[in-house]
Write a structure and sequence with these properties.
204 residues, mainly alpha, 70% helix
Length: 204
């Protein structure tokens, strides 16, 4: 039975280089092409993703902005952050309560339901388990609200600075890794092309 890699070989014939390149997408540097169309070309060079580079730039800008703030600006910034966190927590609590009420209402209906046969008891138990698992922990969100309300504006400012520094470190390392990964993938494919005597990208 033909596979996606052998179908054209079996039906129309295919030269060795094309078959190697087609199969290569299931390995190493080309694994991300496994689900790509079979006629997609195998590239000779990979450019690193700019995701971490962009995130690094944003983190650096944020840290620079925070670093030049006066004390009053730090307090104002922290108060704004605090207000936003508290607001989101209260909104989350409201949503959680509504969801729990809906779940509790359904739980009552399921509990009152008499399954038609003993074979349906498992369904009833499953429904109750799903409801129980889905219940929101209101105690947890209450703790988050309390913690946010007693936390000082300066503490929020300091946390933002720490977060920016963490992001800078993380995205610097990840960007370096991404560059190295792209270089390694490029070398892997170039070695493959060289081994089969292919000097240009082949359309498979």
């Amino acid at each position: 039975m033909p596979t996606g890699y052998t179908a054209e070989l079996m039906e129309k014939g295919m030269d060795f280089k094309s078959f190697v390149l087609r199969c290569s997408r299931a390995f190493g540097a080309l694994i991300m092409m496994r689900d790509a169309p079979m006629d997609a070309p195998v590239p000779k060079k990979f450019a690193p993703s700019d995701y971490h580079l962009k995130a690094l730039t944003e983190a650096q800008k944020k840290h620079e902005m925070l670093s030049v703030m006066t004390y009053d600006e730090q307090i104002a910034f922290g108060q704004t952050e605090k207000d936003e966190v508290v607001k989101r927590a209260y909104e989350r609590r409201g949503r959680d309560k509504i969801q729990n009420e809906r779940l509790s209402e359904m739980q009552s209906q399921v509990m009152a339901w008499n399954p038609p046969t003993a074979d349906h008891e498992g369904l009833k138990n499953f429904m109750l388990d799903q409801i129980k698992t889905s219940m929101n922990d209101l105690g947890n969100i209450e703790k988050k609200i309390e913690a946010a309300e007693i936390k000082s504006p300066m503490a929020f400012y300091i946390a933002s600075v720490s977060s920016a520094l963490w992001d800078i470190k993380y995205h610097t390392e990840e960007n370096r890794t991404e560059i190295e990964r792209a270089a390694s993938r490029t070398e892997w494919v170039r070695d493959l092309y060289k081994s089969i005597g292919a000097n240009r990208i082949s359309q498979l």
